[in-house]
Design brief:
Blueprint (H helix, E strand, L loop, with lengths): L2 H18 L6 H28 L14 E2 L2 E2 L4 H16 L9
Helix pairs in contact: 1-3, 2-3
C-alpha cells in the first residue's frame, strides 16, 4: 500500500466528523481556530520533517510516495497534522458534556 492511499481514510474521517459538527454552536469560530492551528502545525512539520530527513533520521521508500515534496518532506507527511487540527476539535465537540460534580 502506498502512503497516499493510507491518507485517504484519515481525510475522509476528518471531513465526515467535521461536517457532523456543522450545526453545533461556534462552528465558524472553531473552523477559524482549526485553520490557524493547521497552518502552525504544517509550518512546524515542514521545518522539522526536513531537518530530520536531512539529518538521516529516517527515509521513505520512493515507490510508496506520491513524488510531491516540500523540501525533502513528502507531501503525505502533511496530511496527518492537517487532519489532527480539524478532527480533534470536531471529536471533542461531539462528545457528551460532563456534568459538573458539586461537593
Amino acid at each position: 500500500m502506498t502512503y497516499p492511499l493510507l491518507v485517504i481514510p484519515f481525510l475522509l474521517v476528518t471531513v465526515v466528523v467535521t461536517l457532523l459538527t456543522a450545526r453545533r454552536p461556534a462552528f465558524g469560530r472553531r473552523m477559524a481556530a482549526s485553520g490557524i492551528s493547521a497552518a502552525v502545525l504544517l509550518l512546524l512539520t515542514a521545518v522539522f520533517d526536513n531537518l530530520m530527513i536531512a539529518a538521516g533520521l529516517f527515509t521513505y521508500p520512493a515507490e510508496h510516495l506520491s513524488g510531491l515534496r516540500i523540501g525533502l518532506a513528502p507531501l503525505e507527511d502533511f496530511s496527518y497534522p492537517l487532519c489532527a487540527a480539524f478532527l480533534v476539535p470536531a471529536v471533542f465537540t461531539l462528545l457528551p458534556r460532563r456534568q459538573e460534580v458539586t461537593a
